[in-house]
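Methods: example folding runs. The two proteins below were folded one after another, and each record is reproduced exactly as written to the output file, sequence line first and structure-token line second.
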Amino acid sequence: MKKFIFICLIALTAALTASAQKYALLDMEYILKNIPAYERANEQLNQVSKKWQAEVEALNTEASTMYKNYQNEMVFLSQEQKKARQEAIMKKEKDASDLKRKYFGPEGELFKKRESLMSPIQEEIYTAVKEIAELRGYSLVLDRSSDTGVIYGSPKADISNEVLQKLGYAN
């Protein structure tokens, strides 16, 4: 009998401890849309991306033009001239491919630029969320805008506006 009461007491304590945890939701997309620095950084990234894409496309167009010219003039060229033209075309295509990888590859310039522009904003948001979570006693804060599996979240649990206020972007 004493064991049964002791087990019930432990189970009750565990249930109370589990139910005492507090959770909050936030909408990261909403927060980011309301931070002007994020919008400016996105615009800057788009401009740089378009500029770099134009450079890559220019090299590809050059290679394509060289190939068309080569096809048109091929019957008039000697073997050495054909080989030299083919090598020049392949070099131009390789240059375009290398430039594309340099700008848009996994560790490319665009990735580094995005990291340098977005990291301070993300760190600022994280710090604000952490301070609010510690102040309010939240043990978990979920992002409702991502695919984390949040099916429903009460608007009362959403702290997005509070995070924006903490960052100085009153809404």
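Second run, written to the same file directly after the first:
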Amino acid sequence: MDRTKALASSWEANAGNWTRAVRERLIPSRDAGTDDAILAAISTHSPRRLLDVGCGEGWLCRQSVQTLGCEATGIDGSSQLIADAQCADPNGRYEVITYQELMDGGVSFEAPFDVIVFNYALFDEDAPSLLAAIRPHLSAMGVVIIQTLHPWSLEQGQDYRDGWRNEDFSAFENQNWTAMPWYFRTLSSWHQVVRTAGLALLKLEEPMASFNGQPLSLLLTCECHEGDPD
């Protein structure tokens, strides 16, 4: 089974469910702090131009424009999610672009971006190639910001090692989700992903849940490495 293709297909199959889950606030971690965390990380760099890779239904683009006054472009491989984003934000900039198209190098933008963000959108095994492919689209002082599942969020007894996992969305009842394969990485593996992509880690944050002190996410801010990656 080609898990990369299955992962991409799952986003399209679940597009309606994702839009509903985001807009109806059905994802507890968002209210617990992950939305605020990614917006705070972006605002630190006062971007004029933002690219949201894997933008989904576009909430982060809309919020960034509203609160930060920047220009925002959202791209996603799901045509339905992009349609949902455009419906909610007719004046916004959204485009159907797959990760494979980015890695193939055939994608161009009008100008480079000060911040390129992956907000829960980097679940493929070949993350280093995708991150390397977006480096040319960064401005001279631009940064890449990644928010993802915290590696220590595994249930007790699960193996703490890199590998494909499966999300069946059982927490979302009665919505007929399509299972999604995703690639789990340890903390040290995320460090290696950044280095392999030719990036340097500027900041690592672990937003915490106030109610139990457990990490909500892993938040990485990266810049282009001055030299070639090892």
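Comment on the second run: The domain at 3-224 is CATH 3.40.50.150 (Rossmann fold).
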